[in-house]
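Any chance you could type out a protein's amino acid sequence plus the matching backbone structure tokens because I've never seen that pairing?

——
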Amino acid sequence: MGSNEHDGQPAGSRRGLGRGLFGAARPLKAATSAAGTFRAGKAKRTARREREAARREALREARAAQDPTARAVHTRNAVLRWTHQRYQAGDRAPVCGGFMKTPGASFDGVPLELGDLQGALEYLTERDLVELHHPMHWTDPGYRESCTAQRLSLTRLGIDCAESGMTVSDFLHPRPAVGDTYNTTVHAGAQGTQIGRQNTMHNAWGLDANALLRFAGEVLAKLPELGLDAPAEAELEHEAGALRDVASARRPDPTALRRAYDAVMNALGRAPESTVGQWLHEAGTAAINNVLGGGG
């Protein structure tokens, strides 16, 4: 008859009630499962963040334990070497950020940071080994972040450095080979022999400053081509004249030569970028190396 004497409900109603109870349990089970999945995912994300934080802290401690000077020297050499490799491959102006993806972008197993690259670029640029192609200045806001987007190219001096097989420091500050003997032309003063550490230098006193004398003359000759405003041109003319006077002295003083040379290079640095300015920078570096054995 479709009815039940025990519960007073039709059999069909009882089956519908059962389906309803089981149907309500399914969303509850799904919600419980989703909550468990969320908790598991959150735990994994937390563990991943903790591992990353631990990795960063380990790298920070590893960097702190390194010699910052040795790290800087490595970065300069690696950047110049990489730029020369790109130059030989036909890429005359690679993007700086490409270096950070190379094996050279680590020191003793610790990855270099953006600040390491920036420091190397500043050093190499100031010494006329590379040229950066970017409208921003070192001090402009956002420069640090845009550093990797710049392009750089080797100067003629930079090519010479890379192809010399020397480190950047040794190229800029050449040292006599151990055990070599040098004979120096006597200009004035008493004869004598100067003994260094495993080196012997026979000289009469005096310093051959002809290379700096020629450099001063080149600066004065090319003044009109540098595009300086009147005050800056007058300053450079004055400093180049002072260098010429010091270099032409009977006994040039090394300290005075260095001071006069630095003043010329500082004044020359105010000139707009040009082929002439670049050439004079390279000529000046070569001249100071020739006379004092160390570049600016």
